[in-house]
Design a protein that fits this description.
Rossmann fold; plasmid; alpha/beta; 7-stranded mixed sheet; 332 residues
Length: 332
């Protein structure tokens, strides 16, 4: 996935001189996860450069560049660090089109590694996507595999409005399914690890059915897609697994079609339960699929606590917890 993200930026920079990449350590060092490695050497220090440790400054600069006509793709080193820039993101970037009556747009992409599973503790494991889905004017994308990561990032860079691009860091090197006791499987052994050369894009706002089924619908995104697939395999339950890919805009049609068929729904995400994005999905399912439901919608999520370093795998919504939720809705 690291190579896919880098390829998306490389392709976009080659096609459009207005695309610029910057952030903390993204230039000479190539990023803390090496997602921008080699871009400065290829495109020069004016198109890929390092910034001071100032998230508010990074985003504020990107907004000014975007209003001027450039297309910044910037990195927030960890999603946990975006809070100093939250004002710039929500009060400026998200509102430029509205405030200017369409005279200005803000074509920026904010890339940020998100989620846990790497023993990063409370300040390197957060999943803040719900804080962005509440903001009118933003788009929120969370890929679950390298193929989608490249296609969605290219689409985000080409989008005229601000896109929050959250990259699950536990998926950078392989399709982690929550079985932490097992060896890591590399993307080279997964069908979605095959990423085409050159330009292609995936429409923002279109979900993908990763596993067809008829007994229960599991709605997930990011790392939790692979956890949901593992839970379906472990339990033997005929679950249909939907990878949202985009939280805002949301592909409600795919959700409604699936739940209308299965009559049951489990929503899985890594962020804390209270006010997590799963609550929005559960409400939409209830509103649009009430007469099809055979059981209450069940959510599986992180605890309502800071991410605990010492209890990583208890907090992490693994296949065991998802499997129990699947059994619960099937028995209801």
């Amino acid at each position: 996935m690291i190579e896919a993200v880098r390829s998306a930026m490389d392709v976009s920079m080659a096609r459009d001189d207005d695309v610029v990449v910057f952030g903390e350590d993204v230039g000479y060092f190539g990023g803390v996860f090496r997602c921008t490695q080699g871009l400065q050497a290829k495109y020069g220090k004016t198109r890929c450069f390092d910034t001071p440790i100032s998230e508010s400054g990074i985003v504020g600069t990107a907004i000014g560049m975007a209003a001027y006509g450039l297309k910044p793709c910037v990195e927030i080193q960890f999603a946990d660090y975006m809070y100093p820039a939250y004002d710039q993101i929500t009060q400026e970037a998200a509102r430029i089109r509205y405030r200017s009556n369409g005279d200005f747009t803000c074509p920026i992409v904010l890339r940020m590694p998100t989620g846990g599973g790497i023993f990063g503790g409370q300040t390197h494991s957060q999943s803040p996507e719900a804080l962005f889905t509440h903001v009118c004017g933003l788009k929120v994308v969370v890929p679950s595999n390298p193929y989608d990561a490249k296609g969605l990032l290219i689409a985000a860079i080409e989008d005229p409005d601000p896109v929050m691009f959250l990259e699950p860091k536990r998926l950078y090197n392989g399709p982690f399914d929550g079985h932490h006791e097992r060896p890591v499987t590399p993307w080279s052994k997964h069908e979605l690890g095959e990423v085409p050369e050159g330009h292609y894009s995936i429409p923002i706002g279109k979900a993908d059915v990763r596993r067809a089924g008829s007994a229960v619908t599991v709605i997930a995104y990011g790392t939790m897609v692979h956890v949901a697939l593992a839970a379906a395999e472990d339990t033997g339950i005929d679950a249909e697994v939907i990878d949202l890919r985009s939280l805002l805009p949301l592909d409600l049609d795919t959700i409604v079609q699936s739940v209308g068929k299965t009559g049951r729904c489990v929503v899985v995400h890594e962020a804390t339960l209270t006010s997590g994005f799963g609550g929005e999905i559960a409400s939409l399912v209830q509103e649009h699929c009430f007469y099809h439901l055979e059981a209450p919608v069940v959510r599986v999520a992180g605890w309502d606590t800071p991410y605990p370093h010492a209890q990583e795998w208890d907090y992490f919504p693994g296949p065991g917890r998802v499997g129990r939720a699947l059994a619960e809705v099937m028995e209801a």
